[in-house]
Design goal:
380 residues, Rossmann fold, 2 domains, 9-stranded mixed beta sheet, 30% helix
Length: 380
């Protein structure tokens, strides 16, 4: 049976624990403790603390000595938070690296989210939700007043449009101290983009939130309003640097921004030639082809168009310029058309807009950019 386990390495564990302010916590909890890396890091710092862990995998529970109080427990069980409170009382510090999987949004999950006050952050249309959200709720339910939580979350919770209501709730009901961007190779067998979020169980005092990247000393400070929008360090780090592209595009009238309307899979099966993200690269590629006959209902790129890779872990934000010809485009590609696309193309290259889009991209695994991002750059 697979539990979607991506164990926390020692460097990440020690850094997350270092964010805590408590001097002598009595109880430290990890729901979904796995190999107990977070608890062991906490034990190094607070030697007298009671280290408590629950994990659904019995093999993890058997592998540790009695210094850790470990027990089998399902983080998706609505009775788990009550069990923890009955056994140990409110928790001083909680640490968590939840499993990354989707679960059915059914009664058990709904009950947990409702108790934690998170019901309103979920769209009523959602049939499945990330298990990480339920683990977050479980931790919030057992924290004592002014208790601390350090939790590792995927990028969607930190910067995704869908989870803005979640960020707004946490910022209004808790005090977020910092959000740490972790390297993409922080966990074995996945390149998921993840963050360590540190918060305290008290109302936000309207102080600045610290953003930084693991392994880098530079810190970005943002306010609550910005944090609701997104909390990823790479975005604010790029935006705060001295970029010359802030107003350089105002001279252009951007006629159209659109994406293809046929999937790459369908285009491939059709046997016709087309343009896809694989035709674009970081070197601002020049493209040319013949003028092909294209059906009226299929969107295409033509001479003078600027193409942008909309989605892809490695290719998102790559550009291309159509020097000659006309071809259909897949729905993974955006097209820009302006009053003078050749000059616009030259400015895009000179200002390295690909890097800006990469820093702004969203998503946990396969990164993506939105039409709004392009409008903010080229029509802002």
């Amino acid at each position: 049976m697979s539990f979607a386990q991506f164990y926390t390495n020692e460097i990440v564990s020690e850094h997350l624990v270092s964010l805590m302010k408590s001097k002598s916590p009595a109880n430290i909890l990890d729901i979904g403790c796995g190999e107990a890396s977070l608890l062991l890091a906490a034990g190094k710092r607070w030697k007298s603390a009671n280290l408590i862990g629950f994990d659904i995998d019995p093999n993890n529970i058997k592998s540790f000595n009695k210094k850790l109080q470990l027990d089998t427990g399902d983080g998706l069980d609505p009775d788990l938070s009550k069990k923890i409170l009955d056994l140990f009382g409110p928790i001083d510090i909680a640490v968590s690296n939840p499993p990354y999987l989707s679960i059915n949004f059914e009664r058990r999950a709904k009950n947990i989210l409702s108790e934690a006050g998170l019901s309103d952050v979920i769209s009523k249309k959602m049939k499945v939700i990330p298990a990480e959200l339920v683990f977050l709720a479980q931790n919030l339910l057992v924290m004592k007043k002014a208790g601390e939580l350090g939790v590792i979350l995927p990028a969607g919770f930190i910067s995704g449009e869908r989870w803005k209501p979640l960020r707004e709730f946490i910022i209004s009901e808790y005090s977020i101290n910092s959000c740490v961007q972790l390297p993409n190779d922080a966990f074995k067998n996945t390149e998921a983009s993840t963050f360590a979020l540190y918060l305290k169980n008290e109302k936000n005092e309207s102080k600045k939130i610290k953003l930084h990247q693991l392994g880098h000393e530079k810190i970005q400070l943002i306010d609550d309003e910005s944090a609701i929008d997104r909390m990823d360090y790479s975005y604010y780090s790029y935006m705060s640097s001295d970029q010359s592209d802030k107003n350089v595009f105002n001279q252009f009238e951007l006629n159209e921004i659109f994406r293809g309307n046929v999937s790459e899979a369908n285009l491939s099966c059709s046997g016709i030639k087309y343009l896809h993200t694989s035709d674009l690269n970081e070197d601002y590629k020049l493209l040319s082809s013949r003028y092909y006959s294209i059906s009226d209902d299929m969107r295409y790129a033509e001479k003078g168009d600027i193409l942008i890779a909309r989605v892809g872990s490695r290719c998102v934000g790559n550009f291309g310029y159509v020097e000659y010809g006309r071809l259909p485009i897949s729905d993974c590609v955006f097209v820009l058309r302006s009053t003078d696309n050749l000059k616009l193309w030259q400015l895009i290259k000179a200002n390295n807009i690909g890097d800006r889009l990469k820093s702004s991209s969203l998503g946990v695994g396969a990164k993506y950019i939105t039409k709004k991002m392009l409008k903010d750059i080229f029509n802002g």
